[in-house]
Design goal:
- It is a single chain.
- By secondary structure, the chain is an alpha/beta fold.
- It is 40% helix and 20% strand.
- The chain contains 11 helices and 14 strands.
- α1 runs parallel beside α11 and α2 (65-76) packs across α11.
- Bound molecules: zinc ion (ZN).
- Zinc ion binds at residues 208, 210-211, 213, 238, 240, 243, 246.
- Zinc ion is lined by residues 208, 210-211, 213, 238, 240, 243, 246.
Length: 358
């Protein structure tokens, strides 16, 4: 990304200390984290016994903010860490507004807590009509976010989707006072992902019509792949243990990749630039891609995202799967490989330990 230098973080094993982990397997993933960041994870666990922090996740839409935060929570402390997505929170109000009792409770809360230029009844109306024309004012987002955090109890929080607009950058600088996390540090985590990676993820994504699990034929297949003689195509079968399993399908519009969200991506990039310029705040930089020529020096092979291709084996009546490192162009036109989420989270863990001074 222009203007900000995201350094390549070294996660390569020391000589003679090689391991090999399947990072898509939850047990091996846990072993991997222990192997790569065991002492740092212990320090964070110790810190979280009596302290919290608030992290603002900044990155383009679909840059993996939620994935990284959830993985951090899973590995470091499921009890003491929360991921709060502002987008999910806003969407959850659809249900609240359909329930008369909950709706009244929300209105009462906002009467107490909301201060802003847009009349409350206009806001409620816009939320009920799911109108995207009326942007929900920042003052409202703040009040609702504060309410969610109070409900969670005192925990370390990864805030995903705030700040979302330029005026919210200033709010975020003082937000920890508002939620009474005064003594605890706040950290801005910036994530750099090449636009091509987001574009390819959207274009190759498929979802399960039953359980909405999202995968990718090219980048993140399930264990079960089916070849259809009729359309001569390969299809993923959902393997979510909680699902009965169905053929996964593409979502309408996904073939357009990032085109429909380009304005949003530009805004997200501008926001990061704005926060980058702020003095006196703690910053962490994460990057999802590595220039091909640096891969051998900075990573282990299994940390790189593979690309999958398929062939129908007529003789054995089965699908043969081929795997090779996925190569894409970054925003500067350099050949890059993409990192699997765990090494990015290792970088997050180590940088957090450093900025917290643990
Ligand atoms: Zn499913």
């Amino acid at each position: 990304m222009q203007d900000i230098e995201f350094e390549v973080f070294n996660t390569k094993s020391e000589d003679g200390k090689q391991g090999k982990f399947d990072l898509t397997d939850s047990v091996q993933r846990k072993e991997y984290f222990e192997f790569k960041a065991g002492p740092e994870i212990e320090k964070l666990k110790e810190y979280l016994k009596d302290n919290t922090f608030i992290v603002y996740l900044l990155g383009k839409k679909s840059s993996g903010k939620g994935t990284y935060a959830k993985m951090f929570k899973e590995i470091v402390s499921p009890d003491k860490v929360e991921h709060l997505s502002i987008g999910d929170m806003i969407r959850s109000f659809d249900e609240v507004l359909r329930d008369e009792a909950k709706k009244q409770e929300l209105i009462e809360f906002l009467k107490q807590k909301y201060r802003g230029p847009t009349p409350l009844q206009d806001i409620i109306k816009a939320m009920e009509e799911r109108s995207t024309k009326v942007l929900l004012p920042s003052e409202l987002i703040l009040a609702l976010t504060e309410r969610e955090i109070t409900r969670m109890g005192k925990k370390a929080i990864f805030l995903d989707g705030f700040p979302r607009d330029l005026d919210q950058v200033s709010y975020s600088l003082f937000f920890k006072n508002l939620i009474d996390y005064r003594e605890d540090p706040d950290i801005f985590v910036m994530i750099d992902v090449p636009t091509n990676i987001i574009d390819q993820r959207v274009k190759t994504r498929v979802i399960c019509p039953l359980c909405n699990t999202s995968r990718s034929l090219k980048l993140l297949p399930t264990k079960k792949i089916e070849y259809d003689e009729a359309d001569k195509k390969f299809h993923l079968i959902c393997d979510n243990p909680a699902c009965t399993g169905a053929r996964m399908v593409t979502k309408e519009g996904d073939e357009n990749g990032i085109e429909p969200i380009r304005a949003r991506l530009d805004k997200d990039e501008m926001l990061m630039g704005q926060v980058y310029k702020m003095h006196g705040i703690k910053k962490v930089f994460l990057r999802n891609s590595i220039p091909v020529e640096k891969v051998k020096e900075f990573t282990d092979d299994y940390e790189i995202t593979p690309e999958y291709s398929y062939k129908w084996n007529e003789q054995d009546k089965k699908v043969d799967v081929e795997e090779k490192p996925w190569e894409v162009k970054d925003d500067e036109g350099r050949d890059c490989n993409s990192l699997m989420p765990p090494p990015v989270v290792v970088s997050l863990i180590k940088q957090l330990v450093a900025v917290l001074g643990l």
